[in-house]
Design brief:
Elements: H1 8-22, H2 24-36, H3 43-56, H4 58-69, H5 80-92
Helix pairs in contact: 1-2, 2-3, 3-4, 4-5
């Protein structure tokens, strides 16, 4: 699924709300992960990443993104669908 890009004014407003809700460190980490799947400007996906960090733990999410980062940028698995599969599988172990 292609990333949703908000206009700058909306992005900054929503970014501020996410930082207030989850903290700057967690937002920055999720934003960095978003750059791996080229969705760093998609606040929906950033919030989803933060949700995974809270539900599955930082280590599991870090593992999932490290696996996806190994893939070519043109690989269709380099996205949130594959991240979801990895964290769910790792959580089930």
């Amino acid at each position: 699924m292609p990333c949703r890009i908000a206009p700058d004014f909306a992005f900054e407003k929503q970014k501020k709300l996410l930082i207030e809700q989850y903290g700057e460190k967690k937002f920055d980490t999720a934003y960095m992960y978003g750059t791996i799947i080229v969705c760093e400007n998609d606040l929906y996906e950033i919030k989803r990443i933060i949700g995974y960090m809270e539900k599955y733990g930082d280590d599991t999410v870090a593992y999932a993104f490290s696996e996806v980062k190994k893939l070519s940028e043109q690989n269709s698995k380099r996205g949130m669908g594959y991240i979801t599969a990895i964290v769910q599988k790792k959580n089930a172990e």
